[in-house]
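Subject: design request, 182 residues
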């Protein structure tokens, strides 16, 4: 074999190695967001962190007891399209203390609570609340990546009448974050 043939064989081998398909990860054309500050081609990450339990201090207002307190939910995601944040009660929509209960408000839009009800909002209002039940309610529709976290403040309120049994009322609430990306 001549030197020329050896070099040609090496060149064919080298071209064969360079043309091997390499695995890549990227969004299909048109699905990404130009200029997004996230690693290109990486898998989308999504996490949720809660600010802890909420304890609502009650104070007298006329013949009723009222109170509100806030909690934070932080969603961190590299999804360039954003995320949805949902919440729902786990099981019943009633706050309970032994056999006593306070049902969720029937408010479908933010309004004052009726006596012996509880509710939530994401506006920070201490007077206007929505009802929350076992069906997921959309709390936030957020656009864009939030690789450093996006905070949503959820405020809970209670209005109890003078005949409501005293006690520590609780209700489990589930938060769910869903990436918008496809």
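Subject: RE: design request

Done. Sequence follows.
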């Amino acid at each position: 074999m001549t030197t020329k043939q050896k070099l040609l064989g090496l060149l064919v081998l080298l071209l064969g190695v360079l043309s091997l398909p390499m695995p890549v990860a990227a969004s299909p054309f048109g699905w990404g967001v130009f200029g997004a500050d996230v690693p290109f081609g990486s898998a989308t990450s999504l996490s949720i962190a809660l600010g802890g339990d909420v304890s609502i201090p009650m104070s007298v207002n006329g013949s009723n007891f009222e109170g509100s307190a806030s909690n934070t939910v932080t969603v961190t995601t590299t999804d360039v399209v954003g995320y949805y944040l949902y919440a729902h009660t786990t099981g019943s929509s009633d706050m309970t203390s032994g056999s006593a209960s306070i049902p969720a408000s029937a408010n479908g839009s933010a309004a004052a609570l009726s006596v012996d009800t509880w509710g939530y909002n994401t506006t920070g209002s201490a007077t206007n609340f929505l009802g929350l039940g076992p069906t997921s309610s959309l709390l936030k529709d957020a656009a864009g990546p939030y690789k450093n976290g996006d905070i949503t403040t959820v405020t809970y309120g209670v209005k109890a009448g003078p005949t409501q049994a005293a006690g520590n009322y609780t209700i489990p609430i589930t938060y769910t974050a869903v990436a918008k990306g496809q």
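The first strand starts at residue 46 and ends at 50.
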